[in-house]
Specification:
By secondary structure, this protein is α+β, with helices and mostly antiparallel strands. The protein has a single domain, classed as Thiol Ester Dehydrase, Chain A (Roll). It has a 5-stranded antiparallel sheet with strand order 1-3-4-5-2. A hairpin with a 3-residue loop joins strand 3 and strand 4. It is 24% helix and 35% strand. The N and C termini lie close together (9 Å).
Length: 144
């Protein structure tokens, strides 16, 4: 589960302040972009989970540690990995880097509860378990 999935995006003017520095909340949006693209790279989509399997990946916790500012027109690299998978929850870790230099801009983590369309927790459908084998945070950290 230590495999990172990567995608890029360019910082848009609308994501910045007058000085060209990215507004802090946009990093959480980039985490979501990372998750969506991770699922696509794994071979399925959020839309498929919702429509075919009545399974929603609901954010329960989010954290972000800011190290350097992202700036207008930077191309950023969003690196996403699954750090924990339980029967009803998934945890993701993130790195946001400036693509040109590799400079680490932020790290973060989100915890998600699998819910049905009525917002009731449910077990992750078995067909997705091959993408998210059961782990704990401790076992994921111990993996090479």
């Amino acid at each position: 589960m230590n495999t990172f999935y990567e995608t890029t995006t360019r910082v848009r003017y609308a994501e910045t302040d007058r000085m060209g520095v990215v507004y802090y909340a946009n990093f959480l949006i980039w985490f979501e972009i990372g998750r969506v693209e991770t699922f696509r790279q794994m071979g399925f989509s959020y839309k498929e989970m919702e429509e075919a399997d009545d399974s929603y990946v609901v954010v329960a916790e989010a954290s972000c540690r800011y190290r350097q500012p992202a700036l207008y027109d930077d191309v950023i690299l969003i690196r996403t990995r699954v750090t924990e998978s339980r029967s009803r929850t998934l945890r993701f870790g993130y790195e946001i880097r400036r693509q040109e230099t590799g400079e680490l801009l932020a790290t973060g983590e989100t915890l998600h509860v699998i819910c049905d369309s009525s917002n009731r927790p449910k077990t992750l459908p078995e067909k997705y378990r091959r993408f998210f084998p059961l782990t704990t945070a401790e076992s994921a950290k111990a993996s090479p």
